[in-house]
Amino acid sequence: MSSYWWVNHKQTYRQETDGGYIWSPKANANGARNMTYDNLSRCQRGDVVFSYANGRISQMGLVETAAITATKPPEFGSAGENWSQEGWLVRVNWQPLRQALVPQTFFELLQPLLPERHSPISTSTGRGNQGVYLAGLSETLGLLLLKLIEDHADPAVRVHLVVLAEEGEYTAALLDDMQQLREVPSSTERDALTKARLGQGLFRHRVSELEPACRVTGLARQEFLVASHIKPWRSCDNSERLSGSNGLLLSPHVDKLFDRHWISFDSSGELIWQHEAAGEALRCWGIEGANLIQPFNREQEAFLRAHREALRH
């Protein structure tokens, strides 16, 4: 799987993009280690790199070779006069964008996904952080930047997405939802909603307080369970999206049936289905019914009532 990187290279942007590489010293001027320099040694062939300079992402590229030890490129001239002569060099196949992407324009969307440490842009202002050279990005942030570049900067980049990332059904829907969150007026609410949609935060926590295990398989190891919305995310208002009563913790194969309305639960907590295809799947999995952990609360039952009405026949 490709990793995603963001390089801040205002001083050496032209030299590095023209030359097809990124370069940094191996340590700070005082000899101390610098994580964002060390990151060059972690780059692998096929990784994606976003080039940021002068407030814009103007190019993106694919790593061609892992880092090698190399002297400071002579074309740097007076740039980085205090830098050590020995450093890391990574070959990158750069692709200029026909229209640059300005991350600050989409800051409210990007902010919740920025790294807590060594963020390439300020987590409070969205301005470039020149104290960070090469920042590692999460897969979600990397894919979001690709989507923004495709939609707002360079339609031709779609061709390259085939090489750069395999966007499954979930990922594509996730990115669409995250873009819609830009319309949420409250930044605090938007951050919470974004993290909830990613399954990282408040929503999963609230669901787990009500649902200690999968109601079908009985599995209680939460790291193997999916926090599934009862009322679909796209149909919810913002309070419903974060409500723990609008969710169940389910084993992944059960979640797939529940999410697509092949199965549901009656008011007493019993597993129900209408279509024979669902019954066949449950029999193949050795599932005869639900584990009656505890009754649904009033809010859960209200959400489930609508879910049952959409049950496939």
Q: Which strand-content bin applies to the residues?
A: 15-25%
How is the main sheet built? 7 strands, mixed
Inertia-based shape: elongated
Structural class: alpha+beta
Unreliable sequence segments: 158-172
State the order of secondary-structure elements, H for helix, E for strand: EHEHEEEEHEHHHHHEHEHEEHH
The CATH homologous superfamily of the largest domain is termed ph1033 like domains
Query: What's the CATH topology name of the largest domain?
Result: ph1033 like fold
| Tally of contiguous helical segments | 12
**Overall number of domains:** 2
Characterise the protein shown here.
By secondary structure, the protein is of the alpha+beta class. It contains 12 helices and 11 strands. It is 33% helix and 20% strand. Strand 10 and strand 11 (271-273) form a beta hairpin. It folds into 2 domains: 4-181, Roll (ph1033 like fold), CATH 3.10.590; 205-309, no CATH class. Mean pLDDT is 84; it is low at 158-172. The strands form 3 sheets. Strands 1, 2, 3, 4, 5, 6 and 7 form a 7-stranded mixed β-sheet that branches. It has a two-stranded antiparallel ribbon with strand order 8-9. A two-stranded antiparallel ribbon has the order 10-11. The chain is elongated.
